[in-house]
């Protein structure tokens, strides 16, 4: 791939690749990067279109806001052009509704693949689906003006775009419940203090900080990073002894690989 090769540019999503680093950009700043089913399909397509050479993916949003969440047009009787409205979906068979939501969730799942490390660079509003998209990534760098909020409950809904699991893992059950049930804003200081953010920087330094972190992640050999990510992500569901076994197995694979031994 040549530098900044544009792989995809559609429905408010642009994917560019610069050697081992891909950048996914939300490109509708006039609507504060509000989300829609078309945007979710484009995000899913971006994940599938990643070249095998990519090791780090940076997610960013153009304009003053990362993403203001779901476009409220989804709740109108008309919905989006060419799409069933959410109200019509609710009136359909339960199995079809479940399958549709599962399809939407695919836009939020690929960011944690073991073969990549994903970084969300978040400024301004990251509301609802925007908050969940930032949570979908492995790491988050936030600007000092960031405002996270999970507003689904205020609409009579629940967060359903895979954000609840990482949120509880990051801040704990009690704080996650309070954030979701109240819909309040989480600002930069709290995000950094509670682990929602790995780094807080001035807004003007956000893109540079993401580039610096991407460069640091590329310093170690790829296979070692892949194995380490798999170990850490699996640790959530493993017991202590299971994790010890997993560490030994992973290290054995690394040592055999370094010694040039093939199974």
Can you describe this structure in just a few lines?
The chain is an alpha/beta fold. It has helices at residues 37-49, 86-91, 94-109, 129-136, 164-171, 173-182, 188-194, 206-217, 222-234, 240-258; strands at residues 5-10, 13-18, 21-26, 56-61, 117-122, 125-127, 139-143, 147-149, 186-187, 199-201.
Key features of this structure:
10 helices, 263 residues, 7-stranded mixed β-sheet, alpha/beta, 3-stranded mixed β-sheet, 17% strand, globular
**Lateral arrangement of strands in the main beta sheet:** 1-2-3-4-5-7-10
Radius of gyration: 19 Å
Number of strands: 10
Tally of individual helices? 10
The topology string of helices and strands comes to EEEHEHHEEHEEHHEHEHHH
Beta content:
15-25%
Question: What is the subunit organization of this protein?
Answer: single chain
What does this entry look like structurally?
- This protein has 263 residues and is an alpha/beta fold.
- It has helices at 37-49, 86-91, 94-109, 129-136, 164-171, 173-182, 188-194, 206-217, 222-234, 240-258; strands spanning 5-10, 13-18, 21-26, 56-61, 117-122, 125-127, 139-143, 147-149, 186-187, 199-201.
- The strands form two sheets. The chain has a seven-stranded mixed beta sheet, sandwiched between helices.
- Helix 1 crosses helix 3, helix 5 packs across helix 6 (173-182) and helix 9 packs antiparallel against helix 10.
- The two termini are 32 Å apart.
